[in-house]
Structure formats: structure tokens, C-alpha cells
Design goal:
This protein is of the alpha+beta class. It has one domain: Gcn5-related N-acetyltransferase (GNAT) (Aminopeptidase, 3-Layer(aba) Sandwich). Helix content is about 35%, strand content about 25%. The strands form two sheets. A five-stranded antiparallel sheet has the order 1-2-3-4-5, covered by helices on one side. A three-stranded antiparallel sheet has the order 6-8-7, covered by helices on one side. Strand 7 and strand 8 form a beta hairpin. Helix 1 packs across helix 3. The longest helix has 19 residues. The protein starts with a strand and ends in an 11-residue tail after the last strand.
Length: about 180
């Protein structure tokens, strides 16, 4: 199911037929360095990952991580979407591309459209993002998207430190004016 369209991209639900792409994406050096090894090494483990991490999220909450496809050719380039992550109070935006598609503005295009979707369709007032402390490219992209750095966090008690960024769509209500 197509969810978001941009001038160059279509963001759609993943299907079990995307298993070969998921094997490639989750074994990219950048994925393993900044996101971690998810134990996806073949079509069987990729299908299990798609079911558990992607399809179940769509069914449970109506949103999740989406496949990024080229509008012109339909080829998959990466994933981008919204995650309700254990250890975070707010919904998190995540994005990743196959390395051959980096540097073309596709991650920005997909993430910017996803933030609009989060605000206008999902109805979120705030979205956060986490990134490895040494993932400077993602940090720069998050700032370009209008997100601001808030703090260093640990999502799990034994996890590596992460930078937390956020964007608030609805300004807080000002305090009442004294009479």
C-alpha cells in the first residue's frame, strides 16, 4: 500500500516479497555500524524481520517504517518511517538508504515528507529521532529537517549513548496572563 508520495519517491508498506532487499539493506556497512546487526542474513530471517518489525507495526498502530521506492522505476532505495520504540516516550522517525543512493537528497526528501505525514495524517504533536553519537551525517540531516538536539540518552540500560533530536509541531500553550 502506497502511503506517501514525493516528487521522486513513493513510500509504501513493506511486503514479504521485499525480503531480498531487506537482506541487502540490513547488511549494509552503515546499517551495521549505526543501527546494529539484526541477525538478518537470508530470505527466511528477512521475512521474519519484515513480519515482526514492519507488518506487525502497521497492524498494531497504523504506521511504521516504509519502503522507499523510486517513482520512476519502482526500485527500492531504503526505508523511512515512524517507530514507536520501547524506551522512548515519543514516536521516532528513522531513515536509511542503500549506500549507492546516498548523497542524492533522497533521505531528506523521504524524511521531510514523513514528518508532514506524522503531523497531518497521524496527528502527532512531536516526533523525535535518535542517532549514534558518531553518526554526523544523520545528525546534520535531522537538523536540516528542523529537528533540534535535546540530550544524550540510553534507550536501554546497557545501550550505547545516543543523541536525541526532536521537533514539536504544536507550540506549547502560553501561560495565562495575570489579571
Amino acid at each position: 500500500m502506497n502511503v506517501i508520495e514525493t516528487p521522486r519517491l513513493v513510500l509504501r508498506w513493506f511486503t514479504l516479497d521485499d525480503a531480498a532487499f531487506v537482506v541487502d539493506l540490513l547488511n549494509e556497512p552503515g546499517w551495521k555500524q549505526f543501527i546494529g546487526d539484526r541477525g538478518v542474513s537470508d530470505l527466511e530471517t528477512a521475512r521474519a524481520y519484515i513480519q515482526r518489525a514492519l507488518l506487525d507495526a502497521y497492524a498494531r498502530q497504523g504506521f511504521g517504517l516504509y519502503a522507499i521506492a523510486g517513482k520512476d522505476d519502482g526500485l527500492l532505495r531504503g526505508m523511512c518511517g515512524l517507530i514507536r520504540r520501547e524506551g522512548l516516550e515519543d514516536v521516532d522517525i528513522g531513515f536509511v538508504l542503500l549506500s549507492r543512493y546516498e548523497g542524492q537528497g533522497l533521505a531528506y526528501e523521504a524524511a521531510a515528507a514523513t514528518l508532514v505525514y506524522a503531523r497531518e495524517v497521524v496527528g502527532l504533536a512531536r516526533v523525535v529521532a535518535i542517532t549514534a553519537v558518531n553518526n554526523h551525517r544523520s545528525a546534520k540531516l535531522l537538523q536540516r529537517l528542523g529537528m533540534t538536539y535535546e540530550q544524550i540518552i540510553h534507550v536501554h540500560h546497557d545501550s550505547e549513548p545516543l543523541h536525541l533530536y526532536a521537533i514539536d509541531f504544536v507550540p506549547p500553550t502560553p501561560p495565562p496572563t495575570p489579571a
